[in-house]
Backbone:
């Protein structure tokens, strides 16, 4: 199973599109179709049906089943069906609590719903578990810290996100808003 973080740039900052981690399932299967829909941010009814059918009709490996729950959760998050997205991420976490991407997606879900306090430990967990795109976790955590008024921690995480992916403009743009003064 390969994880791919999607919509990383303005997604977390604007909270209009999730910065999510899709999981790749190899092959021309329904599960692959579910992944592709999550990858291209296409949360159509057909895409959700594809994910549902993959979970019921295909003999998925454990990893592919977990990935499909994450991908369906991403599609549901794009559709603003937050309760169903949470259920999918929770299901993936219950299957294997040591996978980073379901935690990252659940953190983003909480952040998008305005619950930065709940998102913080989930961003921490995704980082600790070694998410494949730590810059997303650091960026999301920075925005949550900023939302809660912890500007020092926010600045530190923005710098970390920028250093992890130097060609990503959003952390640099957010860093430009800060003025650092010596005391």
Residues:
């Amino acid at each position: 199973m390969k994880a791919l973080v999607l919509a990383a740039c303005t997604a977390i900052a604007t909270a209009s599109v999730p910065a999510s981690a899709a999981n790749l399932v190899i092959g021309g299967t329904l599960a692959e179709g579910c992944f592709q829909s999550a990858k291209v941010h296409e949360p159509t009814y057909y895409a959700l049906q594809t994910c549902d059918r993959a979970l019921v009709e295909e003999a998925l490996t454990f990893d592919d089943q977990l990935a499909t729950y994450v991908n369906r959760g991403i599609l549901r998050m794009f559709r603003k069906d937050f309760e169903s997205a949470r259920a999918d991420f929770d299901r993936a976490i219950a299957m294997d609590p040591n996978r980073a991407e379901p935690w990252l997606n659940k953190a983003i879900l909480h952040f998008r719903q305005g619950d930065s306090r709940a998102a913080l430990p989930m961003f921490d967990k995704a980082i600790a578990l070694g998410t494949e795109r730590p810059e997303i976790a650091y960026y999301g955590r920075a925005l949550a810290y900023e939302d809660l008024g912890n500007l020092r921690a926010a600045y530190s995480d923005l710098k970390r996100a920028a250093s992890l992916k130097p060609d990503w403009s959003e952390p640099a743009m957010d860093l430009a808003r800060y003025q650092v003064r010596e005391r």
Strands lie at 2-6, 20-24. The chain has a mean pLDDT of 88.
